Amino acid sequence: MSAGRRVAVIGGGLAGITAALDCAQAGARVTLVEVRRRLGGAAYSFEREGLEMDNGQHVFLRGCPAYRGLLERLGSSHLLLIQDRLEIPVLSPGAKRAVLRRGALPAPLHLAGALARYPHLSLRERASAGRAALELMRLDLEDESLDRTTFGAWLESHHQGPHALDALWDLIALPALNLPASQASLALAAFVFKNGLLSGADAGDIGFHSATLSQTIGEPAARALEEAGVEVRLGWRAERLERAGTGFEVHGAGDGLSAEAVVVAVPHARAGALVEPLIGGSARRFEGLGSSPIVNLHVVYDRRVCEERFAAGVGTPVQYLFDRTVAAGAPAGCQYLAVSLSGAEREMGMSVDALREYYLPALEALLPRAREARVQLFLVTREHAATFRAAPGVAALRPESETSVAGLVLAGTWTDTGWPATLEGAVLSGHTAARAALRALGVEPGRTAFDALPAEVAPAGTAGS
Asked: Is the model's pTM score more than 0.90?
């Protein structure tokens, strides 16, 4: 193999894993370095009190072919479960269980029945929400003005009041964008609703991981990278990047790494510090992407208190809850529920005791059987910079994969994928970065699942090219 086809990938999350596999498939000699002792990046698991717990609850949609394609490549797609038909159970204190379920009609009529029967909105609010959804479909995603206002402001201009935002629109916007509609970019929100819910009848069917994230992503990725011939260095921190002739030197603790192309697949703040010496002040704008936190509550009851695989909450601080009993290996008779809180700036400042005192009664209000149950374990995981901040103006701050320095490439959900910070966006960015790195080496990319992606879900100008 040519010595001039060496690629260094910095970061072992989904973007880095994808880029490394693509480059290796094309014949490059690839080394992937990761500061942690595991792969998977922001999607990982940990052991506590004999349970295997995920740091957060990552779902995906049927309309996420890049992510599903990666897991097929890793040999772990059998650990995915996808709904036959979009169905979101909705729980509210003192109210009967409601369900948002798509019908058999083509989009956008597939959601008309669900909206017509939705009990958490009045008849007038349902009709108004339907009209707003039709107007949302008509938005041009190429219109740059969409990124200059919030989704909440647009909804207000289309007669959606605070109650409709809380009871309907934020059920999708908040977990997808990690910000409430009142703060989120209209451009990104429109993308989510159009591509995730309104583009096709089955696009929004929700997918889950039946096993832990480590079993689904990290461990299979380690095997796949080894089989592809990728050298993986875990616990290796990239501290500095330098030009070395026509290539690069990646400096870390103890030793260095030479490569003709480098894919920087780490969070935006870290990426900016690494590449600024090479690309100059343009890297400083990465800081403007900001961050938005996610807090997860892990609650183990001594008995079964919830019959739902997952459910959304309305009229409660509980945004979404997930039953992770089987995946975590909880003791017989117990139930482990994970509560996912997006845009959780308030919760980031609360102590574990304060979160327990606030959220356990909220869970009891939703789940009557929890009132008689004993809480065996209550844990909190916090991701203070879980995603970039999907606020107005973010589009101008997200960089393209290729930088001004040939062979220096960026990857991650924060790059210009068109998607918000999602599993799908991470994988798409890895494919795009690999193509850019290989072009810099004069290497023809191998064919991957990326080539078959429809243009509307791939970054502009890359699908099938």
From this structure: yes
